[in-house]
Prior knowledge:
This protein is mainly beta. It has helices spanning about 10-15, 200-205, 315-325; strands spanning about 5, 40-50, 55-60, 75-80, 85-90, 100, 105-110, 110-115, 120-130, 130-140, 145, 150-155, 160-165, 165-180, 180-195, 205-215, 215-225, 235-240, 245-250, 255-265, 270-280, 285-300, 325-345, 345-365. The chain is about 5% helix and about 55% strand. The chain is globular.
Amino acid sequence: xxxxxxxxxxxxxxxxxxxxxxxxxxxxxxxxxxxxxxxxxxxxxxxxxxxxxxxxxxxxxxxxxxxxxxxxxxxxxxxxxxxxxxxxxxxxxxxxxxxxxxxxxxxxxxxxxxxxxxxxxxxxxxxxxxxxxxxxxxxxxxxxxxxxxxxxxxxxxxxxxxxxxxxxxxxxxxxxxxxxxxxxxxxxxxxxxxxxxxxxxxxxxxxxxxxxxxxxxxxxxxxxxxxxxxxxxxxxxxxxxxxxxxxxxxxxxxxxxxxxxxxxxxxxxxxxxxxxxxxxxxxxxxxxxxxxxxxxxxxxxxxxxxxxxxxxxxxxxxxxxxxxxxxxxxxxxxxxxxxxxxxxxxxxxxxxxxxxxxxxxxxxxxxxxxx
Length: 371
């Protein structure tokens, strides 16, 4: 049975051509190709002071055309207004009107773009179907490569990879346009860059992803559990950055995890209600607890009709494909209360706050899948 691992060995850095502890702008440029099974995402989100929520993501390959071997540029912009109304625009772009740089983040899809250098980013989506943004991201922390490389390798010979490197805390300013009006926003946000050569449906049974902002810390968690093909291996990515923006804890080993679950009737699956993590690195221990207080989104890709689905992932034909793959993809997003406790030798610090996290549950319920 194949397995998965977080690449953190000295030879891994050499293989990937990157330096420990130093992230360079080219690493946020294009890193992959449109070969079948490959894709890449430049993702930005923001929680604004007035309650506006923003998500923007640029991809060189349409997920529906994963096996075609050619670029099919597309992006999505999702806006939730302070009143709770959600607007979604999915935007394909002709390949001849698109370009992606390799020296830094420079993604230009027609009039839409994301350009930046790990410190500052400009993200603009000209309104389509009345939905658009014009935003500036200013990094408040250093870039974060989980495990030193940000690469998860899957398979007997590391033949597959899945990555997620980020600038996990930014000040966000600019304007949002939806519903026939434009207004100014300020808040905090997140950027990550992912690239991979295996479909998430084939790689992951489920994952929990989120981050916590407190007065003195930024916490990033990405708790991956692989599919049966890769031994249901758990890859617990966890990083803590301090108020100066420096990485002060970066998990490269296993984690002790305790989960209390609840049953969701709509999707007929069990999900975590409370998740408790214990990470150890030498004489430093990081404890992290998450307990959700509100469900803010249920996305049942398996059970949703095509007419109800914004993302092109629901409907009868998709359900037949999911059945053939032996999966049942569902997605939950939560408001939660979280607490971080860092202990080193005789000193300890504890901070709490509210966070938003997602639980992307792609597989079928299975007692072996650490849930």
